[in-house]
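Async update (no meeting this week)

Hi team, since we skipped the sync, here's where things stand on the single-chain job. The sequence we agreed to prioritize is pasted below, unchanged from the tracker. I ran it this morning and attached the output directly underneath so nobody has to dig for it. Comments welcome in thread, and please keep replies under the output.
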Amino acid sequence: MHKTSKLAYLIGSIAVASGLIVGVTYAAFTDKGKVLGSIFSAGSSDIKFLSNVTLGTDSSNLTDELTGPSFSNISPTWTQDYLLKIFNNGTSNLGLTTRAYYETANDPKDLRSDIQVEIFLWNDSNSNGIVDSGEEGLSIGKKTIIKWKTEGFDLGELTPGQQLPLILRFTAPTLGDDQQGATAVFDFEFNAIQL
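Output:
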């Protein structure tokens, strides 16, 4: 190689090496961004009953338990409504179901096989706590107390702050003579699951 070629080769090599060093230097610069103070709040599922169905959802009118109805003089022609308003007091959408609960010892004459409940949606448009003409909505279904316990009812979805007014219509069309004077005690449970 000629001296000029060697010198040009050496200068070219130094230029390439310098470029690589500069490139490495630029690649060494770093930066970062941060997301600070991230807050995670758990939702809540909290259903309440309105103690008085004519009043609103003020906390003084909300309760976890209601005293059940006391029905007397039940016969094959008997029918009676029990009015109920459920309120989603939580922060999450809830799937709502209901089941009856009983112990056989509290129903010795097997009234649970003959008493039926039909659940209706209720549009208490004037908030007077009475089922006025046109306020009875669609039927969710009809079952005996036994089926209410084993199968339950699906009441749909309840959004936060939403009420679900219901009519529970009780009948006993198949009571027999052997059940005269019988008494039974049942509980009705409403369950919510966060969606």
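Quick observations from my side:
Residues 3-27 form the longest helix (25 residues).
The chain is about 15% helix and 30% strand.
Reply here if anything looks off.
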